[in-house]
């Protein structure tokens, strides 16, 4: 076990002093070093559970001796050139080397800091090029290096004695090196934000750094402690522990009572902590001491006796963020206390939740309506005063649909603005008079208003081209709207969303005008929430149309729904039989004429063999072995004639499957 541990740290340090140096120097300079060409190299050991080691150079020179965790060396000046490096136990010889690296190249006039960091089972290496050039008088130069194993991405803040904190390094992941910053000489207070909530979780007071100082500031983790190690040019390392931070909670409020006046908010006494808050507006966060509060909502400049709403026993936890919302009409005023969560949000995501604060509106379902594809239910049966769970979603703009009558069809449509990655928002539905709209509350306290768009009553229509000798076609709606383009024989479009109403459709050659129409379908009434398939069938000289209603509702578990449509030009009335593997055939449809659609039939899912009797002798003349149809399939099966008779099975997603006749 000890040898395995030693081998890991040995491998790391060889990589640091060997391969990493080679990577930094490059391999495209074959110039031999001249006498006096020097490189500078030092090492720092930041692996808290790794042992102490020596490093030998060219077999005999002990370049590093007894290097332990938290320690660094001064610079070692060596001739630029090529070295063999051996890692050995403390005081060991080259014969005890556990790993040898030959041919490590050091570049002249370059200073390096080699860093071993992380726990042994996750150990890693960095090679830093140190920069002491061109530092202005009166300045210092520092950079931050994240070597705290087990700590995720951090923001590092400069916290001045007066004024607002400023981010010095943002979104620094484990193993990353921040850029150098040149700053006026002096003492600095650094804050590390571990959970991306713009509030430092640990504060470190750096010692005063004299003008000209150049330092590396390493964040390390040992046990439960996260602290800093400041390494200066002379190799000295100063340990800086985190200071205790004042315990606080963050509180903000939002006014969602449409008929209430401007209000003040009082907490544990007569003094207002928020003033003159009007309907539809929210406050920024206020840092307060954790604890339990009695909160009163009073008219602006009012006294406790004027309260219109009280919240007793409001408990605020350490390092927690809260939003208090007053909602409803003044005669029915109530409150909701929300705990806001900014932690562990993926960099590309947003975090949102819905709060039903629309007094007078009952339970709602909330849908996400994408630009393409089917709507998805986000929240179901959300009652007034209810807070939905947070959802983490990809950044972007969203269209939300509110279904207020539980018919699975949105009655109100809201289009959010583009929400940038990192956004965390409360989305309140409110009602003011007859208007229902959304208020989106962002982290900074700003509130955006989103009015509802009219939810159009729509129907679904697709078009199927079954005229075998007709060219590719377009379909015009009401003379001018080119609803379908370049549709070829045996292909079907996806469903199109069309406003309900009565339409005239014309089938025209590609790019043709209504005057070129080869088929006119007049006065086709499309009804709300219905699905239709419009079919052009038959030879071009005898082309005709069918408008079929597609029924996807109420399909029993384990079943499929099918119907037969006779579109085989030149074939007379037919009977259609189900031919089972065993037992007698059964007639499904009798005397189906050309241009006729049979009724839908609900059958168990599976594979079927269909027989078509064209001469009414109760014996199938054509047999078709259908592909297996899975549970839930809704299929229209068209018989068509193009030299031979075959079937085209049209599925709900617009897929068309050709089934040829089997040999009798």
What does this structure look like?
With 664 residues, the chain is mainly beta. The chain has 6 domains: 128 residues, Immunoglobulin-like, CATH 2.60.40; 102 residues, Sandwich (Immunoglobulin-like), CATH 2.60.40; 95 residues, Immunoglobulin-like (Sandwich); 98 residues, no CATH class; 87 residues, Immunoglobulin-like (Sandwich), CATH 2.60.40; 114 residues, Immunoglobulin-like (Sandwich). It is built from 1 helix and 52 strands. The N terminus is likely disordered.
Topology, please?
Blueprint: H1 2-25, E1 38-46, E2 53-57, E3 61-67, E4 76-79, E5 81-89, E6 99-106, E7 111-117, E8 124-129, E9 139-147, E10 154-158, E11 166-172, E12 181-184, E13 189-193, E14 202-205, E15 214-222, E16 225-231, E17 237-240, E18 249-256, E19 263-267, E20 272-277, E21 286-288, E22 291-299, E23 309-316, E24 321-327, E25 334-340, E26 349-357, E27 364-368, E28 376-382, E29 391-394, E30 399-403, E31 412-415, E32 424-432, E33 435-441, E34 447-451, E35 453-454, E36 458-466, E37 473-477, E38 481-487, E39 496-499, E40 501-509, E41 519-526, E42 531-537, E43 544-550, E44 559-567, E45 574-578, E46 586-592, E47 601-604, E48 609-613, E49 622-625, E50 634-642, E51 644-650, E52 656-659
Parallel strand pairs: 1-7, 9-15, 18-24, 26-32, 36-42, 44-50
Antiparallel strand pairs: 1-4, 2-3, 2-5, 5-6, 7-8, 9-12, 10-11, 10-13, 13-14, 15-16, 16-17, 18-21, 19-20, 19-22, 22-23, 24-25, 26-29, 27-28, 27-30, 30-31, 31-35, 32-33, 33-34, 36-39, 37-38, 37-40, 40-41, 42-43, 44-47, 45-46, 45-48, 48-49, 50-51, 51-52
């Amino acid at each position: 076990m000890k040898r395995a541990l030693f081998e890991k740290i040995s491998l790391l340090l060889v990589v640091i002093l060997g391969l990493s140096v080679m990577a930094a120097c490059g391999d495209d300079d074959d110039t031999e070093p001249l006498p006096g060409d020097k490189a500078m190299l030092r090492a720092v050991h930041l692996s808290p559970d790794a042992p102490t080691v020596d490093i030998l150079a060219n077999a005999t020179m002990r370049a590093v001796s007894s290097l332990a965790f938290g320690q660094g060396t001064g610079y070692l000046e060596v001739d630029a050139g090529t070295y063999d490096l051996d890692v050995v136990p403390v005081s060991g010889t080259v014969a005890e080397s556990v790993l040898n690296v030959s041919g490590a190249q050091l570049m002249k006039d370059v200073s390096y800091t080699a860093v071993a960091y992380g726990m042994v089972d996750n150990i890693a290496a960095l090679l830093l090029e140190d920069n002491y050039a061109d530092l202005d008088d009166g300045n210092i130069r520092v950079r931050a290096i994240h070597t705290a194993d087990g700590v995720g991405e951090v923001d590092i803040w400069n916290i001045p004695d007066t004024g607002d904190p400023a981010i010095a390094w943002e979104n620094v992941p484990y193993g990353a090196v921040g850029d150098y910053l040149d700053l006026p000489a002096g003492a600095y207070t650094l804050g590390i934000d571990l959970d991306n909530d713009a509030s430092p979780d640990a504060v470190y007071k750096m010692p005063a750094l004299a003008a000209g100082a150049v330092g590396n500031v390493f964040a390390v983790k040992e046990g439960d402690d996260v602290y800093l190690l400041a390494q200066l040019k002379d190799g000295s390392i100063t340990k800086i522990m985190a200071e205790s931070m004042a315990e606080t909670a963050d509180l903000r409020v939002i006014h969602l009572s449409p008929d209430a006046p401007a209000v003040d908010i009082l907490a544990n006494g007569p003094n207002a902590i928020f003033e003159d808050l009007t309907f539809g507006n929210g406050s920024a966060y206020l840092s307060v001491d954790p604890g339990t509060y009695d909160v009163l909502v009073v008219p602006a400049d009012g006294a406790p006796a004027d309260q219109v709403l009280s919240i007793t026993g409001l408990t605020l936890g350490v390092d927690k963020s809260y939003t208090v919302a007053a909602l409803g009409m003044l005669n029915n005023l109530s409150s909701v206390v929300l705990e806001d969560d900014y932690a562990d949000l993926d960099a590309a995501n947003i975090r949102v939740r819905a709060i039903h604060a629309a007094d007078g509106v009952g339970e709602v379902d909330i849908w996400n309506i994408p630009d393409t594809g089917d709507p998805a239910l986000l929240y179901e049966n959300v009652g007034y005063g209810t807070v939905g769970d947070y959802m983490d979603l990809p950044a972007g703009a969203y269209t939300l649909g509110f279904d207020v009558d539980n018919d699975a069809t949105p009655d109100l449509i809201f289009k959010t603005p583009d929400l940038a990655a990192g956004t965390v928002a409360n989305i309140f539905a409110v009602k003011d008079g007859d208007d229902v709209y959304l208020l989106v509350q962002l982290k900074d306290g700003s509130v955006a208003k989103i009015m509802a768009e009219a939810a159009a009553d729509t129907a679904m229509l697709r078009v199927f081209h079954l005229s075998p000798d007709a060219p590719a076609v377009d379909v015009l709606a009401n003379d001018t709207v080119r609803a379908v383009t370049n549709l070829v024989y045996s292909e079907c479009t996806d469903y199109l969303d069309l406003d309900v109403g009565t339409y005239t459709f014309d089938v025209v050659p590609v790019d043709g005008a209504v005057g070129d129409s080869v088929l006119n379908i007049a006065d086709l009434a499309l009804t709300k929430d219905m699905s239709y398939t419009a079919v052009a069938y038959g030879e071009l000289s005898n082309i005709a149309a069918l408008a079929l209603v597609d029924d996807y509702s109420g399909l029993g578990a384990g079943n499929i729904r099918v119907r037969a449509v006779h579109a085989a030009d030149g074939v007379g009335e037919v009977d259609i039989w189900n031919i089972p593997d065993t037992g007698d055939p059964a007639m499904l449809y009798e005397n189906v004429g050309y241009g006729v659609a049979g009724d839908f039939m609900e059958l168990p899912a599976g594979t079927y063999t269909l027989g078509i009797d064209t001469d009414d002798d109760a014996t199938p003349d054509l047999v078709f072995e259908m592909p297996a149809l899975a549970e839930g399939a809704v299929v229209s099966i068209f018989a068509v004639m193009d030299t031979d008779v075959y079937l085209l099975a049209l599925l709900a997603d617009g897929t068309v499957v050709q089934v040829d006749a089997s040999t009798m």
